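Suppose you are handed a protein chain with no further information: no name, no annotation, nothing but its sequence. What can you learn? This example shows the usual starting point.
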Amino acid sequence: MVQIVRVLALAAAVGVGGAQAVTLEFGVSYARPGGSPLWAEAGVSDLPLLGGTVTAVAGTRAARLGYARGLTLPPLGAVSATTDLTVTWQGGVRLASRASGSVGPLALNLGAAAFTTSATAADPNAAFTETATDLRERGVSGDLTLRYRLSREVVAVVGGEFGAQPHLLVGVEGRRVLTRPVQGTEAAEDAEPMAADPLPDAVPSDTLPTEPPTSSEVAPDEPAPDESALAEPEVEPVGTLSWRLGARAGRDVLGLSGGLSYATEAGLTLALDALVGPHTLGLTGSAAWNEVLGEGSTLRLYAAYEPWRTVSSPLRAGVEATLAAGPGTLGVQVNGGRRLDGAAGVGLRVSYALPLAGTDSP
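A reasonable first move is to predict its three-dimensional structure. Written in structure tokens, the prediction is:
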């Protein structure tokens, strides 16, 4: 383990000379149940290599190597892809890839995985992540989501999952920015109205015009007031409301789905989704705050009750927080729930990420 950490540190030092900053990461985790309750890992991420970035992590349970790259293909759009290879010290292997891209109004997200060992062999806490994890010992799985923008605020969605529980989903998503009128400034409220100039005393009353001037007599440098500008008050955004409607059908699942999300300008995001049908029930929710624990900090809570899933934990919940600690970032994760076999479980992870300042290449 010590030898691996030294190699990772050397690789990070080499990467500092590149255009992108490298990050050293250290973590200690606890899980119960899950064999050995404690394990540790250390690694490096964002290491520039082969036109992309590399992540290398070694721990007492497994080693992981990842590669990510993004491409811009004008005028088509952008494409990004990631690949992760995990090898446990017991000999199991997990390979996962994900790609996403957009072309005009179309956006595609595709993922696939093949494995000869369970996800909990490398990380027992993977059973209780917010996104459902396939907990089989071996097999293949994948998912596909295609989005088509119907308008500026409405998107059609078609997708599905394949593997142990294949199913399809169709739906529509939308968003709306909520606004409120801008309050008047103090200067405008405190300003005194300007008094009208009195008529000169030397002008006799019989010389004043008795009829209003015609349009030809009005000076050309006096434009009429813009009524449209006065009729439309200035507004400011207060948040974004998003909604989702759809249906999901496949092996051991059939139901209608719906959800709402609300994000404020202050950094608070709330989300709630439900799936209801014959012998099908699913509820997921989350709440996230930015800067709540100090500058640069994040706090997220989530809970999922999905008994319709046959290869994932039916009950999952957790709390994730990050905050600045010295030159790096401290991360704390606590999660738990109920496993496929009905047993309860709990996990804890404490990590520290230390960015190494990079030097822009000439």
